[in-house]
TrEMBL record:
Keywords: Amino-acid biosynthesis, Lyase, Metal-binding, Methionine biosynthesis, Zinc. It comes from Methylomonas rivi. SMART domains: Aldolase_II. This is Methylthioribulose-1-phosphate dehydratase. Zn(2+) binds at residues 98, 100. The gene is mtnB.
Length: 207
C-alpha cells in the first residue's frame, strides 16, 4: 500500500473545504459530484464513492494511481476515468471539480450541444482570459453509464476542437479543472454564474 504523505493530507483538506463551499451553494445535492487533486508523484487524491460532499472527512478522500487504481483499498467514484483522462491530457492541471448543479442540468436541456459564453466580464475569472471581449464554447455531451466510452468521446472532441475550460454532461453536471484546487473552484463559481445568466437570458422554456 502506498503511504499517504503530508502533501496528500494538505490536498485532502483543500478538497474537503471545497466540498463544504460547493455544497453550501446547493451544487452537489445528496451524494452527487466528485473532486480530485493531483500530487507531485503523479498519484491522485479523490473523493470516495458515495460520500456527501458537504460532509467530507479525511477518510472520505482516498488515493489512486494515475490509471485510477485504488492505492488504499477504498472505492473511488465510478467516474474516476474522467478525472485521470484529463490529468493525462493536461500536465498543468492539478485539480478537477465535478458538481451536479441545477444550472448545468438546465443548460444542457436548453442548449443541447454547447453553451456559448461571450462578452461577459466574469470570463476573466477563467485562466488565460484577460478581456471580456472573449467567446468560449462549453461542449455538452450525452450522459452515458459507460465511462470509458464517455471519456473517449471527450478526448476525441478535444482532439478535434481544441482546449476548453469545462464540459457539461447532459442531465448530470459538469467538469472543470485548473492549476490548483483554488483556481478550479474559481472556475466553477464563475461558470455557475455564467450558466445562470444564459439560462435566464434565453429562458428555461422556449416556444
Amino acid at each position: 500500500m502506498t503511504l499517504k504523505n503530508d502533501e496528500f493530507f494538505s490536498k485532502a483538506d483543500e478538497l474537503i473545504a471545497a466540498g463544504r463551499f460547493i455544497d453550501s451553494k446547493g451544487w452537489v445535492p445528496a451524494t452527487s459530484g466528485n473532486f480530485s487533486a493531483r500530487l507531485a508523484d503523479g498519484n491522485i487524491a479523490i473523493t470516495v464513492s458515495g460520500r456527501h460532499k458537504g460532509q467530507l472527512q479525511l477518510d472520505d478522500i482516498m488515493l489512486i494511481d494515475p490509471n485510477g487504481q485504488s492505492l488504499d483499498g477504498q472505492k473511488p467514484s465510478a467516474e474516476t476515468l474522467l478525472h485521470t483522462s484529463l490529468y493525462r491530457r493536461y500536465p498543468a492541471v492539478q485539480a478537477i471539480l465535478h458538481p451536479h448543479s441545477i444550472n448545468a442540468t438546465l443548460a444542457a436541456r436548453l442548449f443541447k450541444t454547447e453553451i456559448v459564453l461571450e462578452d461577459y466580464e466574469l470570463l476573466k475569472a477563467l485562466a488565460g482570459i484577460d478581456s471580456h471581449e472573449t467567446r468560449i464554447s462549453i461542449p455538452i455531451f450525452a450522459n452515458d453509464q459507460n465511462i470509458p466510452r464517455l471519456a473517449a468521446q471527450v478526448d476525441n472532441f478535444l482532439n478535434q476542437h481544441g482546449d476548453t475550460h469545462a464540459y457539461i454532461i447532459a442531465g448530470h453536471g459538469f467538469y472543470t479543472w485548473g492549476g490548483s484546487v483554488a483556481e478550479t473552484l474559481r472556475h466553477l463559481e464563475a461558470l455557475e454564474f455564467l450558466f445562470d445568466c444564459e439560462i435566464r437570458l434565453h429562458g428555461v422554456k422556449q416556444p
